[in-house]
Amino acid sequence: MAYTSSLHLSKHLLLPKPHRARPSSSRSPSFVRAARAVNGAPHVNGHSKKAPNGKVQINGAGADGKKGPGVINGKTHVNGHDRIHLSVTTGGGGQDGTGLRVAYQGAPGAYSEFAAKTALPGCETVPCRAFADTLAAVDRGLVHRAILPVESTMEGTALRNYDLLLRHDLVVAQEINLFVHYCLLAMPGVRATEVRRVISHPMALAHCGRALARLGVDREPVEDTAGAVEMLRSNMMLDTAAIASPRAADLYGLDVLAHGLQDESWNVTRFLLLSKPPSPVPVPVDADAKTSMVVAHRGGSMAVVLKVLSAFSSRNINMSKLEVINNEGGVGEPRPPVMILDTGARGAPTLRAFPHVLYVDCEGAADDPLVREAIKEIEKFAVFVRVLGCYAADTNVYDLQ
């Protein structure tokens, strides 16, 4: 039987930590206040409404970009989480990134590009056709970093870019969480009632399924969201709209017919920035560290999961992620094994195949004595363990509106 299961531990279930104040920095994010809710009431997942200007309001957000959730101290509160609204020049993680080249998948205006610019606002972004091409660009020394989306609140880890990471000798240098705000974009002057077809990445179309059903339009998948916008603009399509970000509308000079198309109000994607080892980004002494690793084994999945949990819990180490991959397919459902590059193999690094894999994120630095002890304990019963990176944890969610 083949299955994938994932456990993401809510923050209130994790062990308490003392709060550490972080020193101010000229590179720290500068925030812009988000729009307040109308009459204090959140407008989330509402019904589509036609405005007098012929534009559409979907899920409680109109074409003027006004959002429903209330704002407290400059942060939007949605489903109990804080969403930080950023200005165009803002970055996260305290790094400017000037002089760095970062590869991303898609055309200019893609969400991955905006995530890279948020994490490293001074970087130069390099578009690539496929996710594999971004990693190859780092391997070949053409760029300093690659950015990959690896998880989504709406899709879980259906973004199988972890598997790509495992095939390369790269490490996680930084993480960033981005609120994905989908908009309906069209050529200037086109009204919502004139749109007969919507194009975008298949996942974006799926994330906006209910809104598109209400609009009554055909759907056509393309390679990526920004690529859809590029296609729309270059071919002057007057009966077609694209789903992409509000920044893509500015970049390509398109009209926003509707904001907030996503079916779920809380739609966040986690991105990882990767580099050649060792990580070029030291974890600040006052920062909360996170360590990511992969644990591979050949049988007894549940027993291994319990042993991994015990290795961390017995040392009071929080786990923020535990995903179990079982690719030992049964009858009628063959699945290829997970391929992992063994960077510690004698001679050249070697790709090894495993039917069972665990992705683990734990709180703490890889060189912390307790984390080191936990990893050594896991190495005693697992066939293979590889630390994917140690980096500063960033629990903020950045909003590019």
CATH superfamily of the largest domain: ACT domain
Write down the overall geometry: elongated
Please name the CATH architecture of the largest domain.
2-Layer Sandwich
Distance between termini? 43 Å
Q: Please count the helical segments.
A: 9
| Class from secondary-structure proportions | alpha/beta
Mean pLDDT comes to 78
How many individual β-strands?
Answer: 23
Radius of gyration: 22 Å
Q: What ranges have pLDDT less than 50 throughout 5 or more consecutive residues?
A: 1-94
Strand content: 25-35%
Pfam family, one: PDT
Pathway: Amino-acid biosynthesis
Keywords: Amino-acid biosynthesis, Aromatic amino acid biosynthesis, Lyase, Phenylalanine biosynthesis
Region (Disordered): 1-29, 42-69
Structural features:
alpha/beta, Alpha-Beta Plaits, D-Maltodextrin-Binding Protein, domain 2, 2 domains, 9-stranded mixed sheet, 9 helices, 31% strand, prephenate dehydratase activity
What does this protein structure show overall?
With 401 residues, this protein is an alpha/beta fold. The chain has helices at residues 111-119, 131-139, 161-166, 202-207, 209-215, 225-234, 246-252, 301-313, 369-381, and strands at residues 3-7, 49-50, 56-57, 71-72, 75-78, 81-85, 101-105, 124-128, 145-152, 171-179, 183-186, 197-200, 218-221, 240-244, 255-259, 268-275, 289-297, 319-326, 338-342, 350-354, 356-363, 384-392, 397-399. The strands form 5 sheets. The protein has a 9-stranded mixed beta sheet with strand order 4-5-6-23-10-16-9-7-8. The chain has a 5-stranded antiparallel beta sheet with strand order 1-18-21-17-22, covered by helices on one side. A hairpin with a 2-residue loop joins strand 4 and strand 5 (75-78). The longest helix is centred in the C-terminal third of the chain and has 13 residues, at 301-313. The protein is elongated and about 65 Å long. The two termini are 43 Å apart.
